[in-house]
Amino acid sequence: MAKTTLMLLAAGMGSRYGGLKQLDELGPNGETLLDYSVFDAMRAGFDDVVFIIRKDIEEPFKRVVGSRYDGKISVRYAFQRLDDLPGNFSVPGGRTKPWGTGQAVYAARDLVTNPFAVLNADDFYGRDGFRLLHEELAQDKGPGAWSMCGFYLANTLSDNGSVSRGVCQVGADGFLQSVVEHTQIFREGDGAYSLLEDGSRRAFDGREIVSMNMWGFRPDLFGELETLFVDFLREKGSAPKSEFYIPFVADAMIRQKRARVKVAISSDSWFGITYREDREKVVASLAELTRREVYPEKLF
Known about the structure:
Elements: E1 5-9, H1 33-44, E2 48-53, H2 58-64, E3 74-79, H3 101-106, E4 116-120, E5 123-124, H4 127-137, E6 145-152, E7 163-170, E8 176-188, E9 191-195, E10 201-204, E11 209-217, H5 221-236, H6 246-255, E12 260-265, E13 271-272, H7 279-291
Parallel strand pairs: 1-2, 1-4, 2-3, 6-12
Antiparallel strand pairs: 4-11, 5-13, 6-11, 7-8, 7-11, 8-9, 9-10
Helix pairs in contact: 1-4
């Protein structure tokens, strides 16, 4: 069986939340959401962890979070920087934030040589998804044998504002056919809608499978990332708020028939903390999981 790495994307600015979500203590004994991801990854069999963070939060992140795993699992760090661009590209004037989740994964290209899972650090995924991804990644498969854990859209929305979701089309064979990023999906009445770039709206029934950035990749991803990142920068690099998303990469590789993405649907509930108002529900959910002994009273 191949060794496997957990990559946690923890470089987000937390602008809508109003602070560093990655360091917010939400569990019964001060656990962060990423503590639950590390715990679930360890019991699923992952061998090490790579955190993608910003350089300016390195000290508090290592002190508050990274120190918890000393002696339990190997931890390394990569840094997402605004100017970490391929080729001869430079940061255009007016650009103040990094380039999205695709660039965040690209930041670890010199650290990760194992098959690896990619997750957001400020989401709670549940143990089942880690088990499913580890089983897939630990198999000795070749380049382009990727995987994803999906969730039902209705179970991933916030009551407090719009969210970004990758809406997936999955074939009868269980492989991903396409994924399209919708950056403004919101509840309205009993349904959900996405506000499109042209001002129109798309309706959803809530049963759609969405990507919550719970992906399984192999090291061949890094070369593909660089090629697609260059294409992205040529086309959209001058736009001050453009972002290079992981679902865009997966979708492009599927269309080019250079990768196949096996989709599993996690049986666990997903929940996240996009807005400050989401916090109370997350705290209550973690307390309930602890009460039911899904998680121990103290993770580490």
